[in-house]
Design brief:
heterodimer, A: about 80 residues, mainly alpha, globular, B: mainly alpha, 3 domains, 21 helices, about 70% helix
């Protein structure tokens, strides 16, 4: 769990170092991440966690915060 | 039926009155009847058949897809000799794959049918003409009949909207609408069928079907927004159009060149914004009279500081549609994922990460280009914008280094204004593709613009000889300043019309009456005393 979080934070901070991911809860709604960021984050997550986030999972509620992304990763790992 | 016509205003008044007089649970039927009537009058019965085909196929497809999940599970249990016990993880995965496969078949069929219709009526002419010119080129001595259809009104808008709904049901975002009449209302809701926005089912549908009580605030804001739309369209867009038509229509005969062409391109930007965003204001305002709020389609586009930001602010419902239903599926597809892995290994991790997104964005922008019309000039338009959008990210590092070397302070107002002007310049040049009749003229226009340096046109009265006189030109410039001021206030998070709507009765009415008087006195009218039709209605 903690390990996942650490790895995810690394991916996010590498993509957009200027965003305060720890405290941000409206990454998509406030348009902090654009569609290019999303694609690059998703591809890194898929590689790192060996899961397959597909287009059906690309909803704002799954990407608005670190916790939401983590929940998605864990849901897909369980499947 | 033009928005600024007595017919439309009478029609809207009757609809609103009936809407609030009858019980809430029947209100959506009033909207449906109004939409049907509006479309029959505007588009005619033949066009209405096209809408009906889209409604029925989308409704049927979505309902069938929804039914598959439960049917497939009982079939799966039977085939695996399972009772009511819980499915294992693997069994769930197999079942899910089987369900998705069946759903996909239905979705693809409905998509092919609807986009097929759109393709044939919108692009049949372009494709057959191009095939014939190929035949001619190779002296084949044969030709095929040129397909020439009358476009059903708003076909791009309602097709995109319906297909978005279908794909969402396939993706499991929400369940299918069972009532075909309710889906018909979602597809044909009259304020937005002609020129958008391309609505999302989860934003709009429940609002359409829910009962609404008359709200004084909604009503005031709706009326104000409609007035603002008429104001932009009839005082600003129609005036700017005169200059645009004069310069681009006669640039070769009259040898317009240099700044004259660029100024006309800027006025085309004014015209397009006042026309399209003004049209949207009327659409939103009319919808608000029924208590229904649509998703915004513009967010102060000329305050964008980059081309990608511009596209997040201009015709947002199309951009979002393209992102969700074209860009993401392509960029996350298996071939793209494979390409990404290969590039990461063979070229560089960074390149592998960004390149597939670039490729997908080029495809999206070419599609957006072609959406505007079947012509090679729009393909150029798409590539032009995609180039700026993708290089922004690709060269993010070098750009940042350059800014550091030049000691640019990123938060300085001067730098921000420079970025806005730069964006406006790029966008205006891109619009040559829109105003020129064909791709060849685009390049001739570019040459004419950059071959002459004639800044004196700003001082020697040339600007007053482009179709409108000095008085009208000054009025147009004042109105441009007004739009800019309203946009700046809106950008700061305040809504001008809420401020006005919240004022006391005399002030509010003074604003209403001034606006109406201004539209009547300064408004320019197209043929038959109706305002000329909206540019985007032809899509």
């Amino acid at each position: 769990m903690e390990e996942n979080r650490k790895e995810l934070m690394e991916i996010l901070e590498e993509t957009r170092p200027e965003i305060d991911f720890e405290n941000e809860t409206a990454l998509i709604d406030n348009q902090l991440l654009d569609s290019f960021d999303i694609i690059s984050i998703v591809s890194e997550i898929n590689d790192t966690f060996d899961i397959s986030i597909n287009v059906n999972d690309l909803r704002p509620e799954n990407f608005n915060s670190v916790d939401a992304i983590l929940a998605l990763i864990e849901k897909l790992q369980e499947e | 039926m033009a928005f600024f016509s007595w017919q439309f205003i009478t029609f809207l008044t009757i609809s609103v009155v009936v809407y609030y007089l009858i019980p809430g649970r029947f209100q959506w039927l009033v909207l449906l009847a109004s939409s049907a009537w509006y479309y029959m009058v505007g588009g005619g019965p033949r066009a209405a058949v096209f809408v009906a085909v889209t409604v029925v196929t989308t409704w049927g497809g979505a309902v069938l897809m929804d039914g598959i999940s439960s049917g497939e599970e009982s079939r799966f249990r039977k085939s695996q000799n399972l009772g009511a016990e819980k499915l294992s993880r693997d069994q769930k995965r197999i079942l899910k794959a089987a369900v998705q496969k069946k759903k996909r078949r239905i979705m693809v069929l409905v998509l092919l049918l609807n986009f097929g219709i759109l393709g044939v009526v919108k692009y049949g002419n372009f494709v057959t003409t191009n095939i014939n010119s190929l035949f001619e080129h190779f002296h084949a001595g044969t030709s095929i009949p040129v397909a020439d259809f009358l476009l059903p009104l708003g076909i791009s808008f309602y097709t995109f909207q319906s297909m978005g709904y279908l794909i969402d049901v396939y993706r499991g975002k929400y369940s299918a609408e069972r009532n075909v009449l309710k889906l018909a209302l979602f597809t044909s809701y009259f304020p937005s069928i002609l020129q958008g926005p391309i609505n999302r089912h989860d934003d709009l549908a429940q609002q359409l079907y829910a009962p609404h009580r008359f709200s004084d605030t909604h009503f005031r804001e709706g009326i104000l927004r409609m007035l603002w739309g008429f104001f932009k369209k009839m005082i600003i867009a129609e005036r700017a159009a005169v200059i645009v038509n004069e310069v681009f229509g006669n640039f070769e005969q009259c040898r317009y060149a240099g700044f004259t062409i660029f100024v006309a391109a800027l006025f085309y930007g004014v015209q397009l914004y006042a026309d399209f965003a003004g049209g949207m204001d009327i659409v939103f305002g009319a919808s608000e009279l029924f208590g229904i709020r649509l998703q915004e389609n513009f967010r102060q586009p000329y305050m964008a500081r980059s081309i990608s930001e511009f596209w997040q602010r201009w015709h947002m419902s199309l951009g979002n549609w393209m992102r969700d239903y074209v860009f993401y599926p392509i960029a996350l597809s298996k071939p793209f994922a494979k390409m990404q892995k290969n590039l990461k290994k063979k070229v560089s991790p960074y390149f592998g990460k960004v390149f597939p997104s670039f490729l997908a964005s080029f495809l999206v922008f070419i599609l957006v280009g072609i959406w505007h019309g079947a012509n090679w000039k729009y393909v150029i338009y798409g590539i032009y914008h995609a180039t700026f959008v993708s290089t922004e990210t690709l060269f993010e590092g070098p750009y940042a280094a350059m800014r550091r070397i030049c000691r640019v302070r990123e938060d300085a107002a001067g730098w921000k204004i420079f970025q806005m002007i730069r964006t406006l310049f790029i966008v205006s040049i891109g619009r040559y593709c829109d105003v020129a009749p064909d791709a060849g003229t685009v390049f001739r226009l570019l040459r004419a613009t950059f071959s002459k340096f004639n800044p004196w046109i700003f001082f020697d009265g040339t600007l007053y000889s482009l179709g409108i006189d000095e008085r009208n030109f000054s009025l147009l410039m004042m109105m441009v300043v007004l739009i800019a001021a309203v946009d700046i206030i809106n950008e700061r998070g305040k809504t001008v019309r809420s401020i006005i709507a919240g004022q006391q009765f005399p002030f509010r009415w003074a604003v209403y009456l001034t606006a109406v008087a201004a539209i009547l006195v300064f408004g320019m009218y197209g043929p038959g005393f109706d305002m000329a039709s909206f540019i985007y209605a032809q899509f």
